[in-house]
Design a protein that fits this description.
The chain has 60 residues and is mainly alpha-helical. Helix content is 45%, strand content 0%.
């Protein structure tokens, strides 16, 4: 699902879940820019690149 199709709450949930994974030692899926130590910033970068391994199912 393209990142444009998420509302702000879904985006926050995805980034928060990935940041928690990173904080607990999950390997980053992108090259970490120099000086980036905050897991939330890294999760946002991963989200923007579309590489976060989280599946979202939307039900109507």
């Amino acid at each position: 699902m393209p990142k444009d199709e998420f509302n702000k709450y879904e985006k926050a949930r995805i980034i928060g879940a990935r940041a928690l994974q990173l904080a607990y030692g999950a390997p980053p899926l992108i090259k970490v820019p120099p000086g980036t130590i905050n897991p939330i910033d890294l999760a946002e970068l991963e989200f923007e690149k579309g590489v976060i391994p989280i599946t979202i199912l939307k039900v109507d």
